[in-house]
Amino acid sequence: MAAKQDHWDSAAYQNSASFVPKLATKVLQWLDVQEGDVILDVGCGDGVLNLQIAQTLSKGTGMIHGVDSSESMIATAKKSASANPSIANSCTFQVIDATQLLTHPALQTSSFDKVFSNAAMHWILRPSSQREAFFQGIRNALKPGGTFVFEMGGMGNVAEMRAALLSVVSRRVGIERAREVDPWFFPDEVWMRGMLEET
């Protein structure tokens, strides 16, 4: 089986989207990190937020495990963590496609106090065939009574830009093909609530 192509470049991401972790204030408030928490970050990217969280976890027995489908992002995250010896033991990273959480037994043992995802699920949930399995993987990772916190694009997010992009691409390949390659899924609140309650 051929390796999945990595469409992410951590250096380019840091140059153009380094603001994303800085917008995670609400997510961090909701996550309410405690020194003893065991946390899973789904779609951790270059690990910047993980390193910030590890500052708190390193004061106790807690740890954070970041997963992302991009080898480039995970390599950068590991390098950044190893450059910070005071937190290196509190954070780990692994290349895992979040739509495949169910295929990773170590993540399916109800061992995480908290699971979170910041600005990644609108990419992760793109393939409709994988959505239910994604949420089952999250549920199985959490301890009973655990917390799942996420922030993602929702219905109507970047609507004008998305419409313009689809229009331009559809001129070359047709609207159906353009919709097939649309990289995002922006659900409404009703859809998300239903999926969470169902899972």
Write the layout of secondary structure elements.
Layout: H1 10-16, H2 25-31, E1 38-42, H3 48-57, E2 63-68, H4 71-82, E3 91-95, E4 112-118, H5 121-124, H6 131-141, E5 142-151, H7 159-173, H8 175-181, H9 189-198
Parallel strand pairs: 1-2, 1-4, 2-3, 4-5
Helix pairs in contact: 7-8
Overview of the molecule:
- The chain has 199 residues and is of the alpha/beta class.
- Helix content is 42%, strand content 17%.
- Helix 7 (159-173) crosses helix 8 (175-181).
- The chain is globular and about 55 Å long.
- The two termini are 31 Å apart.
Termini separation? 31 Å
Question: What value does the average pLDDT take?
Answer: 88
**How does the major sheet shape up?**
5 strands, parallel
Taken from the alpha-carbon principal axes, the silhouette is: globular
**Assigned CATH superfamily of the domain at 29-152:** Vaccinia Virus protein VP39
Number of helices: 9
What oligomerization state is this entry in?
A: single chain
Measured as a percent range, the helix fraction is 40-55%
Strand content: 15-25%
GO molecular function: methyltransferase activity
Organism: Lachnellula occidentalis
Protein name: Putative methyltransferase
InterPro entries: Methyltranfer_dom (IPR025714), SAM-dependent_MTases_sf (IPR029063)
State the main characteristics.
five-stranded parallel β-sheet; transferase; Putative methyltransferase; 199 residues; Rossmann fold; methyltransferase activity; alpha/beta
Give the gist of this structure.
Helix content is 42%, strand content 17%. By secondary structure, the protein is an alpha/beta fold. Keywords: Methyltransferase, Transferase.
